[in-house]
Design brief:
This protein is of the alpha/beta class. It has one domain: TIM Barrel, CATH 3.20.20.70. Helix content is 45%, strand content 12%. It is built from eleven helices and seven strands. It has a seven-stranded parallel sheet. Helix 5 crosses helix 7.
């Protein structure tokens, strides 16, 4: 929940030109809902995609304050689903995540689905159990033909906004030993390898390369660093390398 529409336009103006250089990296910006319309025109033809931070699973109805998939689709190709802050502050459950993923697929949106354990769960050795359960419920019954278009973001909750990032080796291990096998059980090994897995959690220009050089990590879900044009550009440059 950062940046007014005017501030968002200013931020994008300062990063859009340098981001054009990195044609081998898929780049997506996910601002708050009020900025989607303003940024949609700015990003058209820029090589930078646009996504929403959340959406409801219903197409319309008495859900005051919510935003429907077709409303998101009007401006966006991507949508973040199940972010740890949605789970922690707004009671979002794995079952709700599942409804949203299926709605995103129905409207040809690319869901960026977030999974990750809390600090207590991590300290208790429950990472594998928690992440597997989130994936099994969150992606159950989704369209297997469209599985390869799903983007998974591993975001250990203890590393979100804390400045305490997971190590690249640790994050890679969770992807290799927990996330890919769980996806394989759901969709088959071919689709599991095709699904892109991002790391999210205090990613900065200083540590991005540590994650991008890991064989099982395909990108990053960038938080606070995306609010600074030079930081986000530097992270994209690290991905390009």
């Amino acid at each position: 929940m950062n940046k007014t529409a005017a501030e968002a336009r200013h931020l994008v103006l300062s990063m859009i030109a340098p981001l054009r250089e990195f044609t081998n990296v898929e780049k997506v910006l996910c601002p708050p809902f009020p900025s989607l319309a303003a940024l949609s025109g700015m990003l058209e033809g820029s090589g930078v995609g646009l996504g929403a931070q959340n959406m409801h699973w219903e197409e319309k109805g008495a859900f005051t304050g919510e935003v429907a998939p077709n409303m998101v689709k009007e401006f966006c190709r991507y949508v973040i689903i199940g972010h740890s802050e949605r789970r922690a502050h707004f009671g979002e459950t794995d079952e709700n995540v599942n409804r949203k993923v299926r709605a995103a697929q129905k409207f040809d949106l690319v869901p960026i689905v977030c999974f990750g354990e809390t600090l207590d769960q991590y300290d208790s050795g429950l990472t594998s159990e928690v992440v597997r359960r989130q994936i099994n419920i969150g992606l159950a019954g989704t369209n297997p033909v469209l599985a390869a278009r799903i983007v998974v973001a591993y975001e250990p909750v203890w590393a979100i906004g804390t400045g305490k990032a997971s190590s690249g080796e640790n994050a890679n291990g969770v992807v290799a030993q927990v996330i890919r096998p769980a996806l394989s059980d759901l969709f088959g090994s071919g689709a599991a390898q095709a699904i892109r897995v991002l790391y999210g959690g205090s990613v900065t220009a200083a540590n991005a390369s540590e994650f991008f050089t890991q064989p099982e990590i395909d990108g990053a879900l960038v938080g606070g660093a995306s609010l600074k044009a030079d930081e986000f550009v530097a992270i994209t440059k690290a991905a390009a390398r």
